[in-house]
Amino acid sequence: MKKFKLIFAILTVTFLVTGCESYDDFASSGKLIAGFTTKDKNINSIPAGGSKSTTLDLFMTDVFDVDKTFNIVAIPALKEPATSPDNYSFDATVTFPANSRKATITVTGIDSSITNPEGEYFALAVEGDANVVSGGFASIRVRK
User: Fold this and answer.
1) When you count CB atoms within 10 A of the terminal residue's CB, does the N or C end of the chain come out lower?
2) Could you give the C-alpha distances from 124 to 30, 46, 93, 140, in angstroms and in order?
3) Integer Cα distance of 133 and 29 in angstroms
4) pLDDT tens digit string along 79-135?
5) Burial zone of 64 (CB within 10 Å; 0-12 exposed, 13-18 middle, 19+ buried)
């Protein structure tokens, strides 16, 4: 019985010592990630010679007590056929309001030279840098 009490005491002390670890001093080495929440978006029924707009939602992994602004850039189309830059426009920046992980930009399809009846594509991303990783990309189809 004495051995049981000794083993029980050792296990109890071990549990209490290892169960009280604190992670308050943990420094995250991860970078901020910002990107689109929607992978694919369509802008359909663009009037001949006209334009039509839609919105795209974005996210970021951390919340800040100040507004955070990032550049939005066009990247090579993720699907074919790629469209000409004269067939679209988009907000060049996105601002995440303080204490929020969500933001929205406006994207516009323009019928300047859309020829494929099935639609043409372009893609957007958040511009990354040393402290920001570009998260999800958005592939947008423009179609008459």
Assistant:
1) N
2) 23, 19, 11, 8
3) 13
4) 999 999 999 999 999 999 999 999 999 999 999 999 999 999 999 999 988 888 998
5) middle
Q: What distance in Å separates the CA atoms of residue 12 and residue 15, rounded to the nearest whole number? A: 5
Q: How confident is the model at residue 7 (pLDDT cuts 50, 70, 90)?
A: low
Contacts of 62 (CB under 8 A, 6+ apart): 32, 101
DSSP structure string for 21-87:
---TTPPP-PPEEEEES-SEEEE--PPTT-EEEEEEEEEESS--SS-EEEEEEEES-SSSSBPPGGG
Give the angle subtended at the CA of 42 by the CAs of 38 and 47, to the nearest 5°. 150
| Domains: count for the chain | 1
- Domain containing residue 60: CATH number: 2.60.40.1510
Residue 80 lies in a domain: yes
Q: What is the pLDDT of residue 3?
A: 61
d(CA 124, CA 43): 14
Residue in the structure block whose two tokens are 């974005």: 58
Tokens standing for residue 114 = 């859309």
